[in-house]
Design a protein that fits this description.
- This protein is α+β, with helices and mostly antiparallel strands.
- Helices cover 36% and strands 34% of the residues.
- A hairpin with a 6-residue loop joins strand 1 and strand 2.
- Helix 1 crosses helix 2.
Length: 223
């Protein structure tokens, strides 16, 4: 099959994320975004898979954590426009229209793409971590750039304006190789999260959960 350079680029972008996307869908989303065309979108909700028929202005196209998203202004004749972020792999059909929308500077800070936020998530203005062993390499590969200081094979890393969930997940998955130095409140909350995980996965709770499942699945069919 012959591809021109644009086709190859679209194919790579569509297949490069964690969630697979139909290259034709990605191409139409890309066209609607670059040409600023209001588009009719058939979107499958994450909660139940129900299909929503939307008319959207795709202001931002961006990958986050391996998933492609568009941040849109949803427009309707009967309601006020609302802002929503849609995952491209949940789009089954898209039809760009001839209606051209104006760039919204509040949504599309094209002068500095790093300032674009897809989701309104809790963030920390500054976080300082102490890292050792495998956490050092993982931090360099998977966390945003920050200020770091090496002490032998260990590292002190300071990150700015970072999402709360990203730090929590990283520390909890590090197996004790990442420690929060600052802020102290975040360190205390992560310790509580870890204790909750231990309690939920304790032998007593696992057995209790298993017995409950057996009761509901077996005895529920008898009575």
């Amino acid at each position: 099959m012959d591809f021109n350079n644009f086709d190859i680029l679209i194919e790579l972008a569509a297949s490069g994320g964690r969630a697979g996307i139909d290259p034709m869908i990605f191409a139409e989303v890309f066209r609607a975004w670059t040409e600023r065309r209001t588009s009719q979108i058939h979107y499958h909700r994450a909660e139940d898979g129900a299909v929503m028929d939307l008319f959207a202005e795709p202001h931002i196209l961006k990958m986050r954590d391996g998933v492609w998203y568009i941040k849109c202004r949803l427009v309707s004749r009967n309601t006020e426009p609302v802002i929503r972020t849609l995952a491209l792999h949940r789009i089954s059909e898209i039809y760009p229209t001839n209606r051209i929308f104006e760039r919204d500077l509040k949504l599309d800070n094209a002068d500095d793409p790093h300032d674009i936020q897809l989701f309104a998530l809790p963030r920390h203005s500054e976080v300082k971590l102490h890292l050792k062993n495998t956490a050092v390499q993982y931090a360099l590969e998977y966390l945003p750039p920050g200020e770091f200081e090496m002490n032998g094979i260990e590292m002190t890393l300071t990150l700015y304006d970072i999402e709360d969930y990203r730090i929590r997940n990283f520390v909890l998955l590090s197996g004790g190789n990442a420690t929060v130095i600052y802020p102290a409140e975040l360190r205390s909350e992560i310790i509580s999260d870890a204790q909750a995980c231990l309690d939920a996965n304790s032998f007593k709770n696992v057995v209790k959960s298993r017995l409950k499942w057996i009761k509901n699945s077996f005895f529920g069919k008898l009575f």
